[in-house]
Amino acid sequence: MPDATHPEFLHPPVRVDGPVRLAEADPGWPAQFVRQKERIAAALGARALQIEHVGSTSVAGLAAKPVIDIVLVVTDSAEEAAYVPDLEAAGYVLRVREPDWHEHRFLSDSDRDVQVHVFSGGSSEVARMLQFRDRLRSRPDERKLYEQTKRRLAAQRWDYVQDYADAKSAVVEEIIARAQADLGQ
Predict the structure, then answer these.
(1) Is residue 21 within 8 Å of residue 157, measured between CB atoms?
(2) How many other CB atoms are found less than 10 A from the CB of residue 15?
């Protein structure tokens, strides 16, 4: 049984057992997000306080794993009964609970090409994710640095996709720190 310091995996993590495949930027990714946003909004109505496209597919011109990442803000992400059944009815699968990290819940589409990160209203992590996205959208130098890092790391051998994601943490934190400094935070 997981303890409070580790995520609870409800389904096995995604194994890659090799390099991570990055796709060249696809101008269709924003439209894919809009379809998912409409699907989530139809399932949750006003309980969906915010639905945002994040991750590399949300940044024009950036190579990415072809996965649409979404931030969904609800009143209380720990109160799963208030939103998970309706998302499951819409075709999403609850895969991970992280009660010790912003009460994060992670759902994906059944084929895993859509990932929904659920947080409570007021979570500082939502602001950080949006700062990172917006920084990459507005600063070609940051986008280039991030893409070079991603390509270098993606070419390596990884057991799990999450290992690759974790390896990018240092550059992500650097970019967020510069974005916050520019905002005077």
Answers:
(1) no
(2) 12
d(CA 23, CA 21): 7
Tell me: the pLDDT tens digits for 95-142? 999 999 999 999 999 888 999 999 999 999 999 999 999 999 999 999
Sign of CA dihedral 37, 43, 45, 51: negative
> Which regions in the chain score pLDDT beneath 70?
1-6
What token pair was written down for 49?
């306080």
| Residues 74 and 83 sit within 8 Å (Cβ to Cβ) | yes
Does the pTM exceed 0.85? yes
3-state secondary structure of 166: helix
In degrees rounded to 5, what are phi and psi of residue 35? -60, -40
